[in-house]
Amino acid sequence: MRVEGERVLLWLVLFAHLFSGLANDALSYDYTASLECLENPHKPQYGGGIILNPELNHGLKGWYAFGGAEIEKRSSGRNNFIVAHSRKQTNDSIAQKLYLQKDKLYTFSAWIQVSSGITSVSAVFKTNSGHEYGGAVTAESGCWSMLKGGLTVDSSGPVELYFESEDILEEIWVDSISLQPFTQEQWTSHQDQSIEKNRKRRVRLQATDGHGNPMAGAKMSIKQKKPNFPFGSAISKHILNNPAYQKWFTSRFTVTVFENELKWYSTEPSPGKEDYSVPDAMLQFAKQNGLAVRGHNILWDNGNDQPYWVPSLSNSDLRAAVTRRIESVVRRYSGQFIGWDVVNENLHFSFFEGKLGAEATGAAFQMTRRLDRRTTLFMNEYDTIEKSGEGSASPDKYLRKLKEIQYFLKGDRNLGIGLEGHFRTPNIPYMRSAIDKLAASNFPIWITELDVDPTQPMYLEQVLREAHAHPAIKGIVMWAAWKPEGCFRMCLTDNNFKNTPTGDVVDKLLQEWIRAGRPFAETADANGVFEISLFHGDYEVTITHPTLMNSSLIHSFKVVASSTDYISPETGLLVNVSLTK
User: Least enclosed by CB within 10 Å: which of 115, 232, 375, 561?
Assistant: First the structure.
């Protein structure tokens, strides 16, 4: 824009900055977790928290036998630990009495070893109303593995912490036990601090005239054009011919996934008769509206979700059909998705490995990588962060399967962790701890199919806040594709595209996380400076000042993550903008 009689410079300096005033009295959260099996365990997190005698430096003080187990303290070098042996039932182990409060969130950790072999060990909290699982770990003999989890309780009262393992022949060895309570205010402060560090950046804007003089009192109107953090929802084919659906969706989200339209049973309903017209049109719609797309899915390991003609194939014919499917869909969309769900839910189900052998999953990933060299290849599973008990998709089992897949890909690191997130009653402390454990693998993590009971919209807010704040989460996709007959489980709108209560939660959080289309104005100080913390994204700033003679200066800039914890104004990004008569 032309500015009369002046040459104007706008200086933008971006630097990382953490708000020192954010809950400075709150105990920080420890996001670390270990995947290694170590000769000696680490020290207990938080010094053990409310656990009595967490390092067994005072004999068996605070600990007792649970069930029919016998217990004893043992030592190895300078390390002391407690052992449950002579076990006859799965829950025969060690125990400690604790008092837990309803309004607290508890993070739990311990280091576990077993006497021989490899087996799963769970931490359990026996309450007045039942049992709460605190997490599980795959423990080995000869080294220590970290169990990390968490819980809340429905009512305040006494509990018993104990451990269990299905293999009653194993001794359970335990050390460095920790149970740390946090208030809701502290927990929220962890989220706020993580967002400031990982999702936002401090921005310093300075306006000066052509002579370098500060433009005191300059009005700065800042508008976010596009957020960096991928947030979206699944869509159905009904979006293609529904302008109201299109407007509602594209005004909110930056990423999507096709609910069913790309699945094998949709694109090849009869053998050899492929039809990609619907996903082609949906992909074109996404591109036209700047939406990134996840490729869901190439194969689905549930035998009940195959094309009708697939289960009856002989093994040799099935292998040929799988090869044709992978080559067909991956060649068609190579490089056009931000991720592929290659063999969906392959921890809960094993249709292909059951028929084609244990290498079927690895072979599918291998073929997909050969056809699409750049796109991240995901596992995609449920109950990894939703369910704290020892299950088929626990964090340890997830990472073990991912390691097997990586072996087939000769160490390829372009793999991703997809966490579906079909929550019942969310266990937020466990969710955070499970993500901590997965994050230690350094693979990107996405929430891929998030939904909750639609009658409990507060659950959606809890899960979204936790996921968005966790430093390891790279994107969130909800499983809320609209269809006239209703959604899979959770709808964000009604059939008139008016928000449901869960849709209101989404809009509430979007108001916090982004300001797209909603500019806000601020006034520079005497030095022409204004400072603000902004979410990562693309922005536009409009500068007005009396010296600009009824004109204004408009400039675009990006707020991106810093590569260091602190960048000074002198070494930060500096953008000069000049306009002449």
Answer: 561
Q: What pTM did the predictor assign?
A: 0.93
Distance CA 53, CA 64 (A): 12
**Would residue 449 show up in a list of annotated catalytic residues for this protein?**
yes
Dump the DSSP string for 132-160. Answer: EEEEEEEEESSSBEEEEEEE--SS-EEEE
Q: Dihedral of CA 145/146/149/155: which sign?
A: positive
Q: What is the pLDDT of residues 266-304, one digit of tens each?
A: 999 999 999 999 999 999 999 999 999 999 999 999 999
Counts for the chain of helices (H) and strands (E), in that order: 11, 26
The C-alpha atoms of residue 44 and residue 547 are separated, in whole angstroms, by 62
Spatial contact of 417 and 378, defined as CB atoms under 8 Å apart: yes
Catalytic residue among 196, 345, 381, 466: 345
Residue 455, φ and ψ in degrees, nearest 5: -85, 0
Identified catalytic residue from 132, 381, 449, 466: 449
Query: Which pLDDT tens digit goes with each residue over 19-37?
Result: 333 344 569 999 999 999 9
Backbone phi, psi, residue 245, to 5°: -60, -45
| Cβ–Cβ < 8 Å for 298, 321 | no
Residue 154 C-beta-side C-alpha neighbours within 13 Å: 8
The span from the CA of 328 to the CA of 273, in Å, is 12
